[in-house]
Amino acid sequence: MFTAFLIKYAEIGVKGKNKYLFEEALAQQVKYALKRCEGEFKVTRTDGRIYIHALSDFDYDETVENLKTVFGISGICPVIHVEDEGFEKLARTVTAYVDEVYEDKNITFKVHTRRARKNYPKNSMELNMELGGAVLEAFPEMKVDVHHPDVMIHVEIREKIYIYSIEIPGPGGMPVGSNGKAMLLLSGGIDSPVAGYMIAKRGVKIDAVYFHAPPYTSDRAKQKVVDLARLVSRYAGPVYLHVINFTDIQLYIYEKCPHEELTIIMRRYMMKIAEKIAEKNGCLGLITGESIGQVASQTVQSLAVTNEVCTLPVFRPLIGFDKMEIVEVSEKIGTYETSIQPFEDCCTIFVAKHPVTKPNLNVIKRHEQNLGEKIDELVQTALDTDELVIAKWE
Ligand code: ATP
Ligand code: MG
Q1: Same structural domain for residues 156 and 222?
Q2: Confidence check: pLDDT of 347 > 60
Q3: Residue 227 and residue 262 in one domain
Q4: What is the mean pLDDT of the chain?
Q5: How confident is the model at residue 11 (pLDDT cuts 50, 70, 90)?
Q6: Quick one: 257 and 295 in the same domain?
Q7: 0.90 exceeded by the pTM?
Q8: How far is the CA of 188 from the centre of ligand 2 (A)?
Q9: Pairing mode of beta strands 161-164, 151-157
């Protein structure tokens, strides 16, 4: 029955040129979401609104499901639009609409008309009264409540006439692409996909980097990360995933540095390399799934030592989350099942029995000197052999 959708967004704080960018990015993401739905659609922007018109048959549930993944949408209103064939016909259409959408007529309602086309023979006030009267006449159980109606029936008079009353909540946030781009350190765990999702929700486009250590980590472990990038791309748009071969760096650190410092030194190199790829690709920050105290490498001292190698800001949206809270989001966004598949992670292979939990920056730096210049060559080789995978939700 519905032939269009009105997309609502909260534009508080988005003004001037930013508002244009916001709407442009939102329309873009709406189109990306519709591309994976059956049917043909046209997306238009008119006076601060985004409309989606179905140009063919489409699957209503599938379309709504996909629109729910578009950050920046606060509400999705399914709309019927009809030709203007006079008031009598309009009144009949509105009552038929109410009859079909609200099986239980024990509800209060109000008609709210908006005349975008001023040459319509009745003004908004008259339309509200007369359409309300027509509904009451057809369904005497219904009652008008102008202050807190259960149902607000919107009628918009444009070239055609639009009728809607349902608003399905969207995910909120800001459209991806309206707030720059950042580089997600994506592992196969539960946390980092959630971190990427949360930053994308603020309108930030996501690139990703995965440190792979073959043969210590298998192809299957890599595939799992590609799968996770794909799941994140459902919300974040296409994700450019850089797969970096980290084996030689890891082995070399293992050879030259105290084993209890291996994880922290490795993490410092991951951040350094991620920052280089980020800068090369126009990313303005890094994103990790770290949360204070979760593991030895995430104590406040460890985070400080890891952070020291970066000049770009590091976004850690999960920093104050408990594991349970992170799991809850990962289940909601559909990454959990993939994250818990049991494949080895390059951090777990060489992990010491008693990793340092309160690393001292000076001590760590002194031990890193054992790595000499050869580490720079290894980093360069890792960067030169960067393998790019484009992860898309289709
Ligand atoms: P996750 O669940 O995201 O794997 P974690 O709890 O296992 O996190 P760590 O292994 O200490 O924590 O990693 C902390 C963060 O460092 C991760 O959230 C991720 O952002 C990044 N990271 C760890 N390992 C890798 C890797 N192999 N490739 C890319 N990023 C990684
Ligand atoms: Mg991990």
Answers
A1: no
A2: no
A3: yes
A4: 94
A5: low
A6: yes
A7: yes
A8: 6
A9: antiparallel
Residue range(s) defining the domain that contains residue 84: 4-169
pLDDT, tens only, 56-115: 999 999 999 999 999 999 999 999 999 999 999 999 999 999 999 999 999 999 999 999
Is the CA virtual torsion 244, 247, 248, 254 positive or negative?
A: positive
Quick one: which ligand is closest to 195's CA? 1
* Cα 327 to averaged position of ligand 1 atoms, centre (Å): 15
Do 144 and 200 belong together in one domain? no
Nearest protein CA to atom 21 of ligand 1, as residue: 185
Q: What Rg, from alpha-carbon coordinates, does the chain have?
A: 27
Contact between residue 56 and residue 74 where contact means Cβ atoms under 8 Å apart: no
Residues 24/98, Cβ–Cβ less than 8 Å: no
∠ CA(165), CA(167), CA(168), 5° rounding? 145
Q: Rounded to whole angstroms, how far apart are CA atoms 129 and 39? A: 37
CB-defined site of ligand 1, < 6 Å: 185-187, 189-192, 209-211, 270, 288-290, 294-295, 297-298, 346-347
Q: Indicate which atom in ligand 1 lies nearest the CA of residue 263.
A: 11
Nearest CA to ligand 1 atom 4: 189
Is residue 265 situated within a structural domain? yes
The 10s digit of each residue's pLDDT in 122-163 is 999 999 999 999 999 999 999 999 999 999 999 999 889 999
Residues counted in the chain: 394
285 plus 165 within the same structural domain:
no
Placement of tokens 């007369």 in the chain:
130
The 10s digit of each residue's pLDDT in 326-335 is: 999 999 999 9
Residue 174 included in any domain: no
134/272 Cα distance (integer angstroms): 68
What pLDDT does residue 12 have? 63
Kindly state whether residue 357 falls inside one of the protein's structural domains: yes
Close Cβ partners of 23 (under 8 Å, ≥ 6 residues apart):
9, 45, 48, 50
Atom 16 of ligand 1, residue of closest alpha carbon: 288
Domain count across the chain? 2
Q: Taking 70 as the threshold, does the pLDDT of residue 382 lie above it?
A: yes
Are 202 and 174 in contact, with CB atoms under 8 Å apart? yes
